[in-house]
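ligand=zinc ion
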Amino acid sequence: MLDQIRGLHHVTSMAADARGNNDFFTHKLGLRRVKKTVNFDAPDVYHLYYGDEVGTPGSVMTYFPFPNIAKGTPGAGEVGTTVFSVPEGSLGYWEERFAREGVAGVSRSESFGEKRLAFDGPDGDGFALVEARGDSRAAWTKGGVPTDAAIRGFHSAALRLRDGGATEELLKFMGYQEVDRSGDIVRLGLTNGNGADTIDIQTMPGAPLARQGAGSVHHIAFAVEDRAKQLEVRKALMDTGHQVTPVIDRDYFWAIYFRTPGGVLFEVATNEPGFDRDEDTRHLGEALKLPRQHEHLRGILETHLQPIEG
Ligand code: ZN
């Protein structure tokens, strides 16, 4: 069993509209945009990152806004719900805030003994806030949400799979352990994680497969400290038969990707070098940052990409 994984690093989804996406995460949820760059494999599309003050791994929600792509159809074989951690007693505040901001799909529930507020993202994305106990992570406090309610980072990601067994085994190999079970959901957790330590697997045999589009999670990334740890994880996954990509430089972290048995794309990303490697912390996420290989496209991209401010 591996011991290098530290929890979630980031969750990456697809969106249909860059400006609406930016507004939702910075204004409605009060996160900080920590990077404005492009999809390295399709540089005419933004890659927007939202998180805490510096984009600490475990807090980072990222988007590829493909202009006008069709909405995804939820189903099996994907991440169904991405869950953020908020302080105890704050869901009432969020309920009022979401009503005022016109956020859709808002509903209260309780699961695994935790109070939960589900809501839809800008393209119907499945999200929830959970009142987590003892989450000591610092929130971004300049996003217009009071400190005693602001998002601390991810609480968990919930996978919806036709057959969760093999993915559960994989996560256990990656260092997760079963911590609870409720109905058709098994909850896995990590000790010594970064706070974003929980993965729920919901098994839904016979459910139609998801069709990816706007509002769908593209992949989830797990955090490792550095490149040496990442190579250890890569070798262990390859040795157990997983097809893992070579290490790819994403400028703000190093990434490897592999498709899991249940259909969800996993990434393992390094905590180094971080989002402040090319911008002052005070101005994080403000300028359009391009990777070296696409810097020659700057003139075209600055004209082509939709302005997202205001
Ligand atoms: Zn990623």
